[in-house]
Amino acid sequence: MKFRAAVLRQPGTPLTIETIEATRLQPDDVLVKVAAAGLCHTDLEVIEGQLVYPMPIVLGHETAGTIEDVGSAVDRKRIGERVVLSWNPHCGHCFHCERDQPILCDSYIGHGPQAVQIDGTTRLTLNGEALRTMFYIAGFAEYAIVTSACAIAMPADMPLDRACLIGCGVMTGVGAALNIAQLGYGESVMVIGCGAVGLSAVQGVRMAGAGTIVAVDRNRERLAMARTMGATHTAAVPDEDAVAVAKGATQGRGVDCVLESAGNGPAFRLSAEACRTGGQIVWLGKTGVNEDVSFRWGSLMGEKRIVRSSYGGARPNRDFPMLAKAYLAGKLDLDSYVTARIGLGDINQGFADLKAGKGIRSVIQF
Ligand SMILES: [Zn+2]
Ligand SMILES: [Zn+2]
């Protein structure tokens, strides 16, 4: 079959809308008619060349749609199911899967840098040339072919243009709060960076019962949004001293937990400085893998625990429906994230806005 997709041929060049071709479904595949796809920072890292993948490639990994066909090994009853796609296919039985760390699965990590499907092949071609698949999804296209375990059913009344956000940013932020940080009721938390992931972390710690939530960002509009989502205190850096705000809210001790989602040296340093002795730090943001980040050694002492999390400890079958139900119950705001609804042809402008820090999420509607 043929359909339209946004294709990246070289880092630093615009995506082009092409008519691409897909092979037949493999036994465990599902064909998803894409309804909506969010533009995430990780896509931008590939476009800018910080994250290196083979090209040409179809990006997009924050995707929701409807199952239109299934491979021979998949229950045909799934046709018609509304789904959000997970970007972490995993085998379930390798060293890390057995240790409850599917994000480190040998097959997942092994095939990731090649940007192919989990079986090591690709389903997509452009004029006969193989196309690579971002994060096992390739969601900036009218159709996506994924392994069936990565297509997670949504409640029938879940709107897909907001459901797609669950697939990456929301899972990463809310999951870090609910699955990774071990928060006690009423505890104090700082969230650094208030993009989609950070705002989701704010909502996640609120859902976990945090008593004090200090949101930190450079952008005051985003801090205002963080307030509507549960932040009790804000610090607009660099004008305001975030460590002083954290200490002022905690009798001078520093916060019990810091969730960092900004991904730069000053933010990582702040995470250590604002954390109380004996507290915990969760790093969600990232800088270039060959970049150094320096710390004042004393800020790392005092029995602090530091953990890195890249997908919020996601167990998609467990967590995606939970997040959808929280949305439908009015306990998780997803509506405010969608600051632009765009067509596939507007994708380059969408990424320009993301780079400029305009809005929170642009969502492509098909
Ligand atoms: Zn993402
Ligand atoms: Zn595995």
In short:
With 366 residues, the chain is α/β, with parallel strands linked by helices. It has 2 domains: 2-153 and 334-365, Quinone Oxidoreductase, Chain A, domain 1, CATH 3.90.180; 173-308, Rossmann fold (3-Layer(aba) Sandwich).
Describe the structure.
With 366 residues, the chain is an alpha/beta fold. The protein has 11 helices and 18 strands. It is 28% helix and 27% strand. The strands form 3 sheets. Strands 3, 5, 6, 9, 10, 17 and 18 form a 7-stranded mixed beta sheet that branches. It folds into 2 domains: 2-153 and 334-365, Medium-chain alcohol dehydrogenases, catalytic domain (Quinone Oxidoreductase, Chain A, domain 1); 173-308, NAD(P)-binding Rossmann-like Domain (Rossmann fold), CATH 3.40.50.720. Helix 4 (160-180) crosses helix 5 and helix 4 (160-180) crosses helix 10. The structure holds zinc ion (ZN) (2 copies).
CATH-defined superfamily of the largest domain: Medium-chain alcohol dehydrogenases, catalytic domain
What portion of the residues fall into strands of 2 or more residues? Answer: 25-35%
How many separate domains? 2
Q: Could you spell the SSE succession in H and E letters? A: EEEHEEEHHEEEEHEHEHEHEHEHEHEHE
The strand count comes to: 18
Bound molecules: zinc ion
User: Spans of 5+ residues with little confidence (pLDDT < 50)?
Assistant: none
Structural class: alpha/beta
**Shape call:** globular
Largest sheet properties: 7 strands, mixed
Number of helical segments? 11
Please tell me the overall pLDDT: 97
CATH domain fold name of the largest domain: Quinone Oxidoreductase, Chain A, domain 1
- Quickly give the CATH architecture of the largest domain: Alpha-Beta Complex
* C-alpha end-to-end distance: 17 Å
Rg over C-alpha atoms, rounded to the nearest angstrom = 20 Å
- The helicity comes to 25-40%
CATH class of the largest domain: Alpha Beta
